Each structure stands twice: as C-alpha cells, then as structure tokens.
Amino acid sequence: MKSEIKIPFFLINRYLLRGNKWKLFLIIFLMSAAFINLVFVTSLFNGIIEMSNRQIIDTYTGNVMITPKEGSDFIEDLDVKLKKIDQIDEVLAKSAQISVPASLESRNIKRSWPILAINPDDEKQVTNVSEKMIEGEYLAPDDDDKIIIGRQIAGGDGVEMNAFSFKGAKVGDKVTMAFDGVAKDYTIKGIFYTKFLDTDERAFITEKSLNQLVPNFYNNKANSIILKTTEGDENRTIELLRDKELLENFNTWEDVAGLMKTVTKSFLSINILLSIVGVLIAAFTIFIVIYIDIVSKRQQIGILRAIGIKPYLINALYVMQTVVYSCFGVILGAILLFGIIVPYFNYYPFSLPIGDATLVINYGELIIRTETIIIVAILAGLIPAIATTKMKLLDAIWGR
Amino acid sequence: MPKEAIIKIKNVKKTYSTGEVAVRALLGISLEIYRGDFLIIIGRNGSGKSTLLRQIGLLDIPDAGEIIINDQNVVRISEKERSEIRLKKLGYVFQDYALMSDLTAIENVMLPALMLEQTVNARKKAADLIEKVGLKNRIDNLPSQLSGGEQQKVAIARALVNNPEIIIADEPTANLDSKAAKEVIEIFKKLNREGHTIVMVTHEEDEERSASRIIELADGQILTG
Asked: How far apart are CA A266 and CA B54, in angstroms?
C-alpha cells in the first residue's frame, strides 16, 4: 500500500512532461477561461453595484442624511444641531442643504429642477461634485449671483435628458431663478457631470445668495444635512446622533437610495443567476474536455489494469491530473485577470449611465470560484476514470 | 516425480456477442499446465486460442468453468484480487506490446515493480532486465523511438519485472521480422530454462519447436495435445 501510492505521482510527472504540450496548454487555457468567466461576470456586477453605491454616497447623500422630523418642513435651530453633530467623532464632515422650490429659466425654456442652496466649502467636504466640473468652476462661498448646474440641466448633443434641458446652456449664460413671487438672475459659473443622473439633474447656489433673495426666511434652517462618516460607521453614527437628543429623521445612504436600491438588488439577483449559469457552463465545459481526454486514454488505462495497477490508483492518477490542470488553469487565469484584465478595466472602465464601473474582485468569491473549478475538475476526472476502470478490461485495452 | 499443475482449467466456456451474433469461442476447455512447461497453443484464426489465453491471463472472465492458479480459483474473485494476481503471479506479453507511450523503456518496465518496491530497487531491477533482453543502450528511449522487436523485448522485460511464475504471451512475434522474432523466442526459451512457465499462442511453425507441449484448438475445443 505504502509503496504503490507513488504510482500516480510517477505517472503524472511523465504525462505532464512528455504528453502533447499543445493539448496540455489548451486544457489549462480552457480551465483559465472558465475561471476568468466565473470571476469576471461577478466582478463586473460587484463593480457596478459598488460604483452605484459610491455615486450615491459621493455625489448625493453622503453616508448619512438627516431630514426634518415628521410634520416639519425644516430642520430648525441649525446652529445648535450642527454643534451637536460636530461633537461626534465618527462624523468626518457635514453640509447643510436647503431645497429651493424654484424654477429656472434660460434660452426661453423654463423648468423646475431640484435646486440646493449650500455652503460650498462644507459641501466639498462631503460630496465630490466639485471635482466633476466639465465646464467652468465650482461655487465659492461669496458667490451671490452664480449658479452651477448639472449636465442634464445644461443639455446639449448626446446628453441623455436633452429633451428636458436647456438644450445646450454654457458657462456664462444667464439663468433666472423664480419662486414665491421673487426672481433673480444668475450666471452659470460651472457645469458638472457626475454620471449619476439624479445628481446631474441638480443645480446649486450658495446659501449667501439665497439669503440675499429671501432675507431671514431660511435663517438657521435646512432641509437636509448630509454627513460624511467612515464607511460602515453609518448606523453607529445614527445611534450617536439619537443620543444627542436630536429628533430628526436619520437615514443611511442605503435608506435614501430608493430606486438605486432596487436597481442594486436587481443587479445582485442577476449576479447570482449569472454565477449559477457560469458555474454550470464551466462545469459542462471542463467535464466534456476532461472526459474526452480520459476517454482518449482508455487504452492506456486498460494497459495499466492489465499489468496489475489497482483501479483506485488509476482513479487517483486521473483525479490528480485534473487537479493539476485546474490549479494551473486557475493560476493562469489569475495572472491574466490581475495582470491584464483588471488593470485594463481600471484604465478603461465600463461607462454606464450611472457612472464608470471597474472590476471589483471579492476575494471570498474568488476562493469559492477556485474551489468550484477544482471540484468540477475532480469530478470530471473521477467519473470517466471510474467508468473505465469498471468496464471490461479487454474493451478498455482495445479502446472500445 | 509427478508433474505439478500450476494452472488447472476445468470445462471453461466463453461466448462473445458481436452485435446480434453470439460467438461460442470456448466450448468447455479442460487443461492442466505444469510448472516449467513451455506450452504453445496453436490453431486457426477463430479457433479460440487467444480467448483461452485471455481467460488464463485474467484479462477476461469465463462464462462457466474454473481456472485454478496455484490452488486459487481465479474465476469468481474481485477485481482487486485479479489485479494482485496479474501483478505478482502472471506476466502478460501482448501481440501489440501494449506499452505506455509516454514512458521510456525503463519506466515501462519498472512500472509494475513500483507497486511492490521502492523506486530505486524497481529501477535497478528494470535496468537489469532491459540489459538481459539486450536493450541496454535503448533504456531511455520512448516506445515510439524503438523498433517493433525492441518494443516487444521491453514488453517481455515488463512482464518479468515482478518475477512471476507464469509468462503468458499472445502471438508475441506476430508483428516482428524474422530476426527479431527469433531473438524474442530465444528470450522465452531462456526464461523457460530459468524456471518460468511459459504459455504462448503462436501461428509460427518454427516457434512450435521451442515448446515442451503443444495443444491445438479448433472451434473452441482442444483438438490435440
């Protein structure tokens, strides 16, 4: 027993060294392709999900969004509440926002879009809209007649919502903001493009300009406060906010995500479905290739049996062989994935209407995919090997 | 001193199905093969001689009857036990050599020995046997780099590596030229002189002269011998 166990090792070494190198390469390449297929689709969906989550956090809600308590339109006593928020270590930055229920008019087009009055310095600390300017500049705190608008408001050729936009507004164009019987002309200071549709349909003015337009009305009030926290600290932050006896509504970015949350859930479901399909395709492909490889060696298996090599050793030989194939396949796949594919898509991300998606590798899933490939390969080697060691010896020797 | 039967074949029957046609290859063969015999089985094509050899070599299982090797009935035993007997007690030489194409001459020969011994010992035994069959300078050649005669010599060395009592050869010279065939037969004669029991199927009349016994099969039955 002890002595005979070396037989599979002895044979596999020779098979790999002296077998047809092209066939070996093709089998390993196929294994690597199956591995990449399994990892790529999942990673792409992970990337899309992560990108959409990031877009929500970085351009829209921050990590936590505070809204007025039930029955109120505003967060009152803003100064006091901001001071309480400042006392919480988990909060890295905050920005109070006032929703201005106004319409914008330019180029004889008048529409209502979400307009937010902000402190630009505070907003910069929470969102990254300031980094997404495609024309002009971001707001400065002292801007009292300047407005920045999203690309979907500016419009132009190739803009998704062009039909409902200013159809090509440029930096420097005049925009009239009107609400509640008052109107004010603003100059477009900048146009931003975050690729997140909800954000790109927004316009921003400074709180200073709003206070000039409607003095005192919005003093010490806000419609929302968005907070930046460390990733994963959202719920803890909300607990601490409640401890400060703040009575407002506290929402994590996921609570606010709304439609995006549904889309993300759909992506997750599709991801799981595609993963199952991917595993099945990989299983069938690997099984067929290994099966054909082993069936083509039926005569060799017959000879091994004829000279007295025990069936379990023959089975072990072919299982080990497929494990070697699959391990090399996974290694080659990982080299191609991390050496070429991931860097390529980091450099040239998938451009989607909600943002640019790169491949996000989940290492837990990567291990599961690797195990899947190896288990499938073991079965693909074991089943035909057992069938051949159980068939009539003469049929095996004659390759029937 | 009475001869000792190393193989006893009792009323062995075998029928093959080829499509819808059943071919009755052995119709109840009974035979005793004695220790030290050089038994040659002759007969026309389809007489059942190779079928009989495969039953004795445990490559096939008879439909009925008994085959007793060294007092052990080998007909109704497990595949594991059959492997054990093929490994230790029988050496089978195929007409078409049946060598492992990815193994060199010495690796082919040492393979069965690896089942029982350390690699170093198996390699030494194999090297000695390859030298014995005259292929010392071809030791590291793959089968594809050897002539038919050389391949058959490697196959004989492999059959001998675990020092089996019985060597079974199925038309071992059928694919060889006359010179190579003569060399192979000489090896079998030498092995027989060294004490191995040889059971061989052949078509060649020259080879029949090497035998201590000849039996002739016709239509699945022993005609003479």
From this structure: 64
- What ranges do the domains of chain B cover? 36-62+82-224
Query: What pLDDT, on a 0 to 100 scale, did the predictor assign at position A376?
Result: 85
Q: Hey, what amino acid is at B44?
A: R
Q: Answer whether A4 sits within 8 Å of B116, measured CB to CB.
A: yes
The tokens 């690729």 sit on which residue? A195
With CB atoms and an 8 Å threshold, state whether A6 touches B99.
no
Residues from chain B that touch A309, judged by Cβ atoms under 8 A, are 83, 87, 111-112, 115
> Does the beta carbon of A298 lie under 8 angstroms from any beta carbon of chain B?
no
Segment A241-287, tens digit of pLDDT: 888 877 788 999 888 876 677 777 887 888 888 888 888 888 888 88
In tens, the pLDDT along A214-236 reads 887 778 899 999 999 988 888 99
Tokens of A240: 């601490």
- Give the Å distances, CA to CA, from A361 to A40, A48, A53, A85, A335: 8, 12, 16, 35, 14
Task: Tell me the pLDDT tens digit for each residue of A283-323.
Answer: 888 888 888 888 888 888 899 999 999 999 999 998 998 99
Residue B188 is classified by DSSP as: H
- Antiparallel, parallel or unpaired: β A146-150 and A203-206: antiparallel
Provide the strand spans (E) within chain A.
64-67, 91-100, 103-106, 109-112, 115-118, 133-136, 146-150, 174-179, 182-192, 203-206, 224-229, 249-252, 350-352, 355-357
Average pLDDT in chain A: 89
Report which of residues A329 and A260 the model is more confident about: A329
Q: Which of A316, A383, A298, A397 is nearest to B86 (CA)?
A: A397
DSSP H/E element including B145: none
Name which of B92, B100, B162 is nearest A300 (Cβ-Cβ).
B100
ipTM above 0.85, yes or no: yes
CB contact under 8 A, B59 and A307: no
Torsion-angle region of B122 (φ positive above 0: left; ψ -120 to 50: alpha; else: beta): alpha
Residues A97-118: what's their mean pLDDT?
91
Contacts of B79 in chain A (CB under 8 A): 311
Return the CATH architecture of domain B36-62+82-224.
3-Layer(aba) Sandwich (3.40)
**The dihedral of CA A53, A56, A62, A65: what is its sign?**
negative
Domain residue spans of chain A:
6-56+261-397, 69-247
